[in-house]
User: What shape does this take?
Amino acid sequence: MVRGRRSDPWHRLPVSYPRPMEVVMTLSANLRRILFASGFMVLGSLGTVGLTAAAGRGGPGGPAAHGPAGGPERVVLMAMRRLDLTDEQQALLDDAIDDIRDQVRAAHSGRERPDREALIAAVADGSLDREALHARVDARLAAMAETAHLSIDRIMDVYESLDADQKAELAELLTQAAERRGAMGRPGPGPGPAGAMPFDGPAE
Assistant: This one.
């Protein structure tokens, strides 16, 4: 039995939170943003590296109200919320959302911001440090990977608690979500980031 919709808890997550399983699969796409955060915005102004606009934080509408609607892990957790869960399963799901939120906020608050004036000066005087830039990229990727792995673990905690009927119902909910997305003219899951998610499905 599918429960009615509850209020969307995803307003608790910043819209820019890293998507599980997309760290490796979309590395080339994310590299522009990573390099931007690492200090290569200077080179971007010279046409060497394109810049990616940083996503804003979600407001009351949550991530779905601001551009791409959250990624495959959001789809799975939102579908799980519609299942007839036991109290124990509901607690696991609530903990999953809270843990992902806390991890994202910690990663965001701990991220070092590049000193743009210093970087411009380094480009001008020839002192731009290759190793320092690589170190910043490594740190950013490590933070993304940590968040991605935690998100997968929390999703699996909930999934492994489901019985066979609940898993079948979850699959049906994800199928319905995919069909709704297709009806709205959005591309369905295929090769790429979404296909890498164990419980693939587009956002509602």
Notes: Helices lie at 22-25, 27-45, 72-80, 87-109, 116-125, 130-161, 164-183. Residues 9-196 form one domain. Residues 14-70, 187-204 have pLDDT under 50 and may be disordered.
